[in-house]
Amino acid sequence: MTRLLSSLPHLRTHLNDWVQSLQPHERNWALQWVEEIENVKITAIPLVFSFVFDRDQQVADEAWIVLTCLTARFQETGWRSLEPVMRSYAAEFPLGRLGPDDLEKLSRFGNRQSLLLGLASFHGNGYVREAAVRRLDASSDGELPFLLLRLNDWVEQVHRAALAACAARLTPENARQFVANLPYIESLVEAQRRDLRPFIQAVEELLMRPVCLPALLEGLSSSDSRTCRTCLRLALAASGEDTTLIFERAFRSNNPRLRLDAARALRSLPAGDPVQMVFLPRLSHDARASIRCEYLYLCHEKYPERTAWVLRNALLDPHPSVREAARYYLKLHEPMDFRLFYRAALGGPEVTSLAAVLAGLGETGQAEDTAVIAPFLHHSSADVRRAAVTAQGKLDGDNYVAQLLEALKDSRSRVSRAAREALLPRVFLIPDDALWAAWAGAVTPQAKKNALRLMLTLPQWRGGVLLVRACAAAAEQEDNDSAMTAQTLVQTWLACFNRSALSPTTEQLGQVKSVIEGSQASFGPEILAALQRILQDSERLTR
């Protein structure tokens, strides 16, 4: 019947029998649910789950196999999102008639029953959930996430059973299980139905025992960011004197949020702390700008004697937030003309610093500084060209429109994008012919798209004429990428057409009409009809 079921003959036959047993008007509905199984949709879980209670052990075993496939994603993402699925669809299948005594049938699955009992703990019937929780309490394989979810159950008996089961597991031997399920525990903080803070505190007290430190260190490598951060907080609170290993694990992590938390924890240590001195260089060279900023804050607070040197180096950081933080703290230490600093630095730094120098000059300079920036618009490094374009746009973009239009055609997308951003506030200064020439002269798809987006921001009919022309020209040149972008932007222009009361000139009407008559195939039928309607209305109004 399906690909997933092709190797499961007993379940496939049973599903066929189930479909045939229904009334004719119900069979299409049933076949749709079987199709859900083929497509590995989670909405099929309640249907398949109902077959694990079948008297035929082979049918039940094959249903269990299908369930492991359907629930595989929840092993990583968490089981919480499955609960509403089970509750919403269970009533449509035999599962809705499940009673607490029926769970006894799951004992035949042996150590495989934890998953099935966990699914039963999502049942809409409180008696079934309570029975599932009590049976989960007797198991010792993957039961903890289901028990934690039931702590916030609205039925008091279910909550008490889950709380007793979880409390019984608060031992060092289960530390790794609690670390693995920290996302569930953290979510209990937000529970409004019951006050679960005492239980959360008990879990944290368990994990802060010295014997549980290895479990917390393993948790620092978790794929869940919240788990990593909680493990770091608990490990630092529990470690006592030596935190070197904890910081080492945290700063080696690929999780930037964890490294930032570690940097802030390092900042909270007293000045001169040996651990702090060991890891300070890590902060200064971290790939994350926010962590490099923490390095500046730490030096400013703890080591004022070395702050000036550190902050001067940070003035050439590639990230604007780090440069801004460095300038702020330098002002507190000594008066300094940052504009002159950046101008002096243009004398011959390495290419890696040159982009930061130009960016810094753009942030602190004046209009007359554009003369020293202009030569770098043609630099061999794309990063330097981008920084020069951005600086020109900030300092005196109105007088450098022609140069920025030239940069718009740059073969490197980041340079072209910077030119577009610099031209955007002054698009009204760009002559139509110059913008058309920039689009026609662009050699990369990204540069053409940037020119088209600038056309869209022009006053109503100026931009519309250019976009319509671009549609036709791109189609004629068989430039499919530009043609699709131009058509999309023409649709946007048409959608916003009535927001402006500007009337077209006779010349603009003639240009649009000429393009449409000569290149009707360049436009989709809806766009063509809309353009023709607008032309007719505009011609009538201009008579």
Outline the structure in words.
With 543 residues, the chain is an all-alpha fold. The chain is built from 33 helices and no strands. Helix 19 (289-302) packs antiparallel against helix 20 (304-314) and helix 25 (382-396) packs parallel to helix 27 (413-423). It is flat, with a radius of gyration of 33 Å. The protein starts with 8 loop residues before the first helix and ends with a helix. The mean pLDDT is 86.
Quaternary structure: single chain
Helix content: 55-70%
- General form: flat
Rg, Å, rounded: 33 Å
Secondary structure topology:
Layout: H1 9-21, H2 24-38, H3 45-50, H4 57-70, H5 72-77, H6 82-89, H7 113-120, H8 126-137, H9 144-149, H10 156-168, H11 175-180, H12 182-187, H13 197-207, H14 213-219, H15 225-238, H16 244-251, H17 256-267, H18 274-284, H19 289-302, H20 304-314, H21 320-333, H22 338-345, H23 351-364, H24 370-373, H25 382-396, H26 401-408, H27 413-423, H28 432-441, H29 445-457, H30 460-476, H31 480-495, H32 506-518, H33 525-542
Helix pairs in contact: 1-2, 7-8, 8-10, 14-15, 15-17, 17-19, 19-20, 19-21, 20-21, 22-23, 23-25, 25-27, 26-27, 27-29, 28-29, 29-30, 29-31, 30-31, 30-32, 32-33
Q: Could you list some keywords that capture this structure?
A:
flat; 67% helix; 543 residues; single chain; 33 helices; mainly alpha; 0% strand
